[in-house]
Write a sequence for this structure.
C-alpha cells in the first residue's frame, strides 16, 4: 500500500486549530493572523502536506494543466517548441502534459482522448495530417479549447503557426535567383497530405518559368539526418543531377550535406543545399546551411495566449482564428556561392 494522504484534519489535530482555520491559512487568507498562519504552514511542511488538486479543480472547474501533442519529439524544432511552450505556460500558471503521436494517426487520437480523460483545460496540437482533422473538429464543436500548431485557414480550428508554403516558396526562390534550374526536393510530408512545402516549391519554380519535374522529388520516409543522407543518394543517382536541393527540414539538409562530403561534391559550387527551421546544428555544420527561419518564441507566445483566451471564454468559444507567422531566409555558405547559368551548369 502507498503512503496515507495527509488531510487538513491531520494538520488541525497537530496544531489544535479548526479545519476551517487551517484551510484559510494555507490559502493565505488575510483573516488569519500571521503568527497562526506561520504555525500552520510549518505543521503542513512537517507532515509533507500537498493540496488536493482534484478537489480544487472540482470547485474551480480548472485543472491548470494543458496537453501538448507533438508528432515526434526527436525533431529538433519540435523539441525546442516543447520547451518554449512549457516555459510560457508555466509563466501563466499552467502545468504541461506531453505526448507524442510518433506520426501515427491512431496514436494521435488515443493521446488526445487520454488528455481529455485527465481533464486538461485545453490542448496545443501538432497534427500528423494537417487536413484530416475530423477528430479535432468534434472537440471544437463541443467548445473544447484547442489551438493547432500548423494551420489551414479553412479548417475552422484556431491555429498559430509558420507559413510553410511561404517558407518553401522563399527558399526555392532564393535558389532560382542564384540561377539554379534543376532543383530537387526532399520532403516526407507530401505523401501523407501535408502539401504546403511542396506547393511552395512548385510555385517558386513556376514563377521562374521552370517546369516541375517529378523525378526531382524524393520522399525520405522520415525526418532524420540518416533519412536525408539516403534520400540524397536517391536524388543524386538521377541521370541528370540537380544543382540544388531544398530539404523540408534541417535534419534532412544535414544528411544531404553529409552525402556530399562522402562523395566529394563541393557545396555550394557543385550542389547547393537549403533547409527549413534554422536549427542550431544547421548554423554550425561543416558547411553552414542556409535555412528558412521563423520566430519560435513568437509562435509559442501567440499560441499560448490564444489558448488561455479560449479557456477563459468558458462554454462559448469565439470564432476560430488562424495566425500565420511570416518566415525569412537565412543565407549561409551552403547556397551563397557563384551564380550558375540557366542551363544548371556551374560556372
Amino acid at each position: 500500500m502507498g503512503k496515507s494522504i495527509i488531510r487538513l484534519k491531520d494538520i488541525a489535530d497537530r496544531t489544535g486549530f479548526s479545519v476551517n482555520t487551517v484551510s484559510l491559512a494555507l490559502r493565505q487568507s488575510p483573516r488569519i493572523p500571521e503568527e497562526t498562519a506561520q504555525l500552520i504552514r510549518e505543521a503542513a511542511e512537517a507532515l509533507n502536506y500537498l493540496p488536493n488538486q482534484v478537489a480544487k479543480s472540482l470547485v474551480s472547474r480548472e485543472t491548470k494543466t494543458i496537453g501538448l501533442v507533438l508528432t515526434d519529439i526527436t525533431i529538433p524544432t519540435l523539441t525546442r517548441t516543447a520547451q518554449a511552450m512549457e516555459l510560457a505556460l508555466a509563466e501563466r500558471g499552467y502545468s504541461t502534459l506531453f505526448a507524442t503521436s510518433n506520426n501515427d494517426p491512431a496514436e494521435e487520437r488515443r493521446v488526445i482522448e487520454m488528455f481529455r480523460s485527465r481533464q486538461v483545460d485545453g490542448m496545443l496540437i501538432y497534427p500528423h495530417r494537417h487536413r484530416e482533422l475530423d477528430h479535432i473538429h468534434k472537440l471544437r464543436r463541443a467548445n473544447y479549447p484547442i489551438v493547432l500548431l500548423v494551420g489551414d485557414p479553412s479548417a475552422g480550428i484556431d491555429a498559430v503557426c509558420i507559413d510553410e508554403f511561404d517558407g518553401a516558396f522563399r527558399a526555392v526562390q532564393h535558389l532560382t535567383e542564384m540561377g539554379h534550374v534543376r532543383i530537387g526536393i526532399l520532403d516526407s510530408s507530401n505523401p501523407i497530405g501535408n502539401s504546403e512545402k511542396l506547393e511552395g516549391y512548385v510555385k517558386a519554380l513556376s514563377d521562374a518559368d521552370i517546369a516541375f519535374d517529378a523525378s526531382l522529388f524524393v520522399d525520405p520516409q522520415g525526418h532524420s539526418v540518416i533519412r536525408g543522407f539516403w534520400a540524397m543518394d536517391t536524388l543524386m543517382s538521377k541521370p541528370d543531377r540537380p544543382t540544388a536541393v531544398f530539404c523540408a527540414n534541417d535534419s534532412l539538409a544535414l544528411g544531404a550535406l553529409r552525402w556530399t562530403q562522402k562523395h566529394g561534391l563541393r557545396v555550394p559550387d557543385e550542389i547547393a543545399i537549403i533547409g527549413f527551421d534554422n536549427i542550431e546544428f544547421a548554423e554550425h555544420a561543416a558547411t553552414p546551411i542556409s535555412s528558412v527561419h521563423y520566430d519560435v518564441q513568437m509562435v509559442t507566445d501567440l499560441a499560448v495566449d490564444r489558448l488561455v483566451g479560449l479557456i477563459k471564454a468558458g462554454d462559448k468559444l469565439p470564432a476560430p482564428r488562424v495566425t500565420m507567422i511570416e518566415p525569412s531566409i537565412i543565407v549561409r555558405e551552403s547556397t551563397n556561392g557563384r551564380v550558375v547559368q540557366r542551363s544548371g551548369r556551374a560556372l
